[in-house]
Design brief:
The complex is a heterodimer of chains A (about 300) and B (about 100).
Chain A lengths: L4 H5 L7 H15 L8 H17 L2 H10 L6 H10 L26 H9 L14 E7 L1 H4 L3 E7 L2 E7 L8 E4 L15 E7 L6 E3 L2 E9 H6 L1 E7 L2 E7 L8 E4 L16 E8 L6 H12 L3
Parallel strand pairs in A: 1-5, 7-11
Antiparallel strand pairs in A: 2-3, 4-5, 6-7, 8-9, 10-11
Chain B lengths: L6 E2 H8 L3 H9 L6 E3 L2 E4 L4 H14 L3 H32 L2
Antiparallel strand pairs in B: 1-3, 2-3
The chains are: A alpha+beta (about 300), B mainly alpha (about 100).
Amino acid sequence: MAVDHYKVLGVERTATADAIKAAYRKLARKYHPDLNPNDAGAKKKFQEINEANEVLSDPESRAKYDKYGEHWKHGEQYEQARRQHGQPPGAGFGGGTPYEGFQGGTGNEDYADLFGSMFGSRGGRQAKFRGQDYHSELQLDLVSASTTHKQALTVNGKPIRITVPAGVENGQTIRIADHGGPGVNGGPNGDLYLTFIVKDHPRFKRTGADLHTTLDVDLYTAVLGGDAVLETLDGTVKLKVSPSTQNGERVKLKGKGFPVYKKEGAFGDLYVTYNVKLPTQLTDEQRSLFEQLKATRH
Amino acid sequence: MDTQQLVSIATFCKHEEVELAFVHSLHERGLIEVVVQDEVPYIAPDHLPRLEQLARLHYQLDINLEGIEALSHLLERVERMQEDVRILRERLRLYEDQ
């Protein structure tokens, strides 16, 4: 759907250049990404504002926009084609509206161009613009997030290789300098902001560097105590189950949790909740023994 | 810290076309950390994003130093609160799944 640049800036079509500039400044201060961290909505709005300002702050492009609407960039091509076809003004390529047949529009402009065009009012600074920052997501499973490893990914068609540090959190964003969009006129490249999406694990839940899991133990081990084997993320550990362990009881295995981000050798704890499984199919002998046991309670 | 990992403030200012006085003012106000080695002021790579952000606020949005100081505190609070929300969501998920 076509965006009305005047509406985006909240000004009348007859607004003066100063009014447009003032409206832009006001909105830019409200929606600038630096003032709205991690707010995708504000970023999108800021891009729309920049786009509107780029068009309306330049008298020439504003005049074309007023005349041709959203396809103002192709307005001259349209006029030329119309003259070649001997069509009257307003007839358009297909004989319908003047804008039929045009594709694209202003959706692909480099964000950095738009960003820089307004703010470059200080002497000699207009020409160089920093490239656009890219935002991307990288999905990891819990096991991969627990080890420092290299990962190859493609961002905007370019392959890059990064080292994912052990212990990254779900939703955590890291900045990879210089891997964003190219700078304009010698300006520096933008940065790549990579957000990790760590998928849930079927057996382990994570809170920070701590892990939580459940372990089934049979009734006899729960009552009398004994050994149990627990699978962790990187192997197995042998657990001593205390006698009279209750269903839902929780024990902590210190240092058996998740690695702490960027703290080599530091690990969180693993919390194990016992799930005591009762026998479901008793033999006659077992049933008799349970009856005897019951009788001893009095 | 190894100076190879540090970015000299003079280099940063030249590259970003930022006035040295602006960076010194940020440092004086405690908004950025500066490391001085052999009488040369450097900024640690970890602090570069904050410096770049503050420079954008000043040069692109025309926000003065007093405004930047106030905004910087508010942004730190916003970021801390976003981190708290993220941690709380993770914890909540643990109970929702049970």
